[in-house]
């Protein structure tokens, strides 16, 4: 049985990489911050592949970002831009 959490993570990562390849210079920091977080979420998340949906990845990733913002003392402007890019990536990934 396919793993929807993992599949969504891969789709989002591909989308973010595509966004990075066409990004304006001012978005490169935010995208460069977001992309490696996907693999960390995949490594740290504990779940049963039979009991998750793709939306569970989205929620887990979002919570992860919030915690890393706090740990990294992320500036509010950077947080806001990451949030905007995250919504764009979710929409583009479908």
TrEMBL record:
Q: Which domain of life is it from?
A: Bacteria
- Official protein name in the record: YfcL protein
> In which organism is this protein found?
Kushneria phyllosphaerae
């Amino acid at each position: 049985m396919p793993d929807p959490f993992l599949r969504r993570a891969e789709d989002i990562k591909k989308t973010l990489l595509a966004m990075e390849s066409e990004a304006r210079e001012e978005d490169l920091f935010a995208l460069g911050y977001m992309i490696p977080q996907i693999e960390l979420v995949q490594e740290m998340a504990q779940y049963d592949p039979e009991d998750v949906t793709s939306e569970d990845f989205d929620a887990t990733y979002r919570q992860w970002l919030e915690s890393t913002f706090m740990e990294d003392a992320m500036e509010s402007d950077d947080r806001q831009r990451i949030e905007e890019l995250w919504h764009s990536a979710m929409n583009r990934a479908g």
